[in-house]
Design a protein that fits this description.
The structure holds 2 protein chains of 2 kinds. Chain A is mainly β. Helices cover 0% and strands 46% of the residues of chain A. Chain B is globular, with a radius of gyration of 13 Å.
Chain lengths: 113, 112
């Protein structure tokens, strides 16, 4: 699986958009970008994933650059409950991609009042 | 739906004791897995299963045993607990490889 690089921590004011970047310059053509988050002491929660097109769901938007070497997770109106560690994960979906997800250390997002 | 249910939430063991962490899912997912999370280490895969009767090792399988007799249940057994197994354990399930994972709420285990 491609290696990802995320900032260690970020702050965001409540009500503003939170833009979390992720670099994955070695991503291969069949690898997807996944985002999960983990609120303190809870199990990780799936947010969104994509291959090359931008994706949006009820939680967030995922913007993937045209060369696919980086992506940005956007929480459009951050709330205090969005304070969590956000993990960007790149992996394939074929059986030979293995089963483990490399969660890395993620970005610790603090949403402030 | 209950999703993924883990029990117990907290457990304290003495070195050498054995115990089983329970995990059950009600989503008819084929894939189930166990992760451990240690401070500064992220989540690491212990064991996983791609269906009833089929299990395989992950990154850190030593000291743990699993079985999958039904689609719903995937227990994790600690054979002889060691202080190095003090961690938070998460069970997860999904429809398949690359599908989104649903995680349980975790079991915090301390081995003294």
């Amino acid at each position: 699986d491609a290696k990802t690089t995320q900032p260690t921590s970020m702050d965001c004011a409540e009500g503003r958009a939170a833009n979390l970047p992720c670099n994955h310059s070695t991503i291969s053509g069949n690898e997807y970008v996944y985002w999960y988050r983990q609120i303190h002491s809870q199990g990780p929660q799936y947010i969104i994933h994509g291959l090359k097109n931008n994706e949006t769901n009820e939680m967030a938007s995922l913007i993937i650059t045209e060369d696919r070497k980086s992506s940005t997770l956007i929480l459009p109106h951050a709330t205090l409950r969005d304070t969590a560690v956000y993990y960007c994960i790149v992996r394939g979906r074929a059986r030979n991609s293995g089963y483990a997800l490399n969660f890395g250390k993620g970005t610790s997002l603090l949403v402030t009042p | 739906n209950a999703g993924v249910t883990q029990t117990p939430k907290f457990q304290v063991l003495k070195t050498g004791q054995s115990m089983t962490l329970q995990c059950a899912q009600d989503m008819n997912h084929e894939y189930m897995s166990w992760y451990r999370q240690d401070p500064g280490m992220g989540l690491r895969l212990i064991h996983y299963s791609v269906g009833a009767g089929i299990t395989d090792q992950g990154e850190v399988p030593n000291g743990y045993n699993v079985s999958r007799s039904t689609t719903e249940d995937f227990p994790l057994r600690l054979l002889s607990a060691a202080p190095s197994q003090t961690s938070v354990y998460f069970c997860a399930s999904s429809w398949g490889i690359g599908e989104k994972l649903f995680f349980g709420s975790g079991t915090q285990l301390s081995v003294l």
